[in-house]
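Supplementary Methods S3. Complex input for the magnesium ion-bound model.
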Amino acid sequence: MREYSGSDIRNIAVVGHGASGKTSLVDALAFVSGTSKRHGSVRDGTALTDTTPEETDRGFSISLACAYAEWQGTKINFVDTPGYLDFQGDAIAGLSATDGALCVVSASAGVEVGTERMFREAVARRDPVLFVVSMMDKEHADFDRIYQQIKTRLSAKVIPVEIPVGAGSDFHGVLNLFTKRAHLYKRGAKTGEYQEADVPDEARGQFDRYYQELIETIAATDDSLLERYLEGGEVSSADAVTAMREAMKRMELFPLFCVSSELLYGTQAVLSTIVDLMPNARDMEELHAFTGAEGSNTVQVHASDEAPFCAQVFKTISESHVGDISYFRILSGTLAAGQDVYNATRDTAEKVNHLSIALGKDRAEVTRLHAGDIGCVAKLRNTHTNDTLSTREHPVRLPQIVFPEGQVQMAVHPANHADEEKLQAGLHRIHDEDPTFELHYNAETHETIVSGLGERHLEISLSKLRRKYGASAELAKPKIAYRETLRLRAEGQGRHKKQSGGRGQFGDCWVRIAPLPRGSGYEFVDQIVGGSIPRQYIPAVDKGIQEACTRGVLAGYPLVDFRVELYDGSFHTVDSNEMSFKMAGILAFKSVAPKCKPVLLEPLDEIEVTTPDLYMGDVLGDLSARRGHIQGTEPTDGETRIRAVVPQAELHDFASSIQSMTQGHARFHRRFKGYEEAPADVVQRVTSEAAVHQEEPVAH
Ligand SMILES: Nc1nc2c(ncn2[C@@H]2O[C@H](COP(=O)(O)OP(=O)(O)OP(=O)(O)O)[C@@H](O)[C@H]2O)c(=O)[nH]1
Ligand SMILES: [Mg+2]
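Predicted complex, serialized as structure tokens:
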């Protein structure tokens, strides 16, 4: 393969709703370009960019994958992204690594919530977007209807550039409005071969209507073109293409195309259009990177071969027998096979032994890649998603990709105890591959908690864990970290005495226990005067109480926010020791705390839901049904932001219920707020559960 420099490279993310036909389109584009030798299919598990067992078994994409096509002297790098919300992290990573997006809309399903989300994401990043109506061969495929849907639901600036000839089983060609030429396919053929022809009679009416609209729309984006057009002059197709490319950069126009990836109709035209209309990799927006491993100064990064090398790793995937593969985009400079590089994010030296470009799971080795290109390298020692590779001489860190936050939390338990170590190591490896999969240990409930973008995300992450790292685990509802506190003050004695022949044990203390405001924690006050307890034993009493309060008196949850005053006691010159006074502290806590009117505290989260107004009533109702307190609502741009405080115990299935209630339109953030006294029915339930599980302590 020849070397491509940035001006001959296009980097394109393929985005859209789940099952809209992205993976099939990438396969078809790579095949008709001649880069890939076989026309694969998602249904048979042979598509170029759905390759892991998790993907081929289920028939949808889970992680991003790269492929490329060489077309008209240009290399087009595709990043196929998953459409399901649960795997949105990789769609974001895909957009971050590219300069433009193909937004795929199925001709039968139309605009869906994932289409909307990814379109808005691309526009927010100022990436030109080209819409492709896929599956034009399917029954009920209706190009006009999809065009209107995109226009009303996504952007009035969408404009058809290529229209279908026929639809459904009669779909047999595409008509380009710029060139006024049709590509007509032999009905039913799947070779991608076509005949070029003038506008066929059957499409004449449609052509005239759309042509008029296209030229007027383009002219309206460019003053000199508009003048010429209004004066009756001809707008050449070269001028129209140039004006459209400029308007696309300004987010003023979004061209619309149509294809059938299954039949390969319209696919060559999409390739040519990407070359003509999408920005080349050299024209990328200027970036600022931080200098060095620690530095906070920034330097400008240009996609120039002459500048120092730097690249961003937007994905790492570990493959059995190969190890980690890091996918990166070169932002500046060039990279040669065998080159030493420096990971400034982790301050580690790395060597690029096998420099490759990916075509699905196949990798072709190359000797050099230029600024703007996308490549991959196997077996870096300590490089993960979001790291910057640069050089020792010019170390920089690029701004990081911001991944969506976790929406669902589950506890994860090893299927058997022997797997515990493998499980922990494997979970960390999965996090390294997929930053939206996170884990932490909850010391209060003694559980490892994993979080992700949806239940399916967590389940599939565990299948990966089993296959790649041989660790079986199960997901469970996380235990709630209740706590206890006290309402009243009380006092009393703890006396430990043991005489069992030889030296005995003796410790005796008197304490007052009093509640403290929420969040104050624990205080110990030494009020001993006159040496009723010798100095050296006082910390032991404190220690005993701290140990005892990890298991509260109501339901065995840690008791917090109280003060202990140690005001009296007695000792024995021979039998007293630290151990005896620690025991006395434990006994004092056990006898006094129950007299202080213990209460149960439950953890609460602050939730911020943003939902289209249409669903606001349902969301408010759902939050109230979860014992949520609505703090306020704020309108934002056709949507409403609702803030509420909701007990964690009620939030377990919140993510899936809110998604189904709002058809995937709502987004939410959740963060820990604090503890509040639990209502009587919760206390009743928790204490009776604790009574049942008395043998399995919640906290040790
Ligand atoms: N008839 C027909 N079916 C298609 C076409 N393109 C895709 N399909 C089918 O539609 C389904 C979804 O296609 P995919 O390519 O997996 O869609 P995707 O957008 O990659 O889906 P996710 O990876 O889940 O986001 C598969 O069963 C494909 O075989 C097409 O042009 N014609
Ligand atoms: Mg896919």
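The longest strand covers residues 598-612. The chain has a mean pLDDT of 94.
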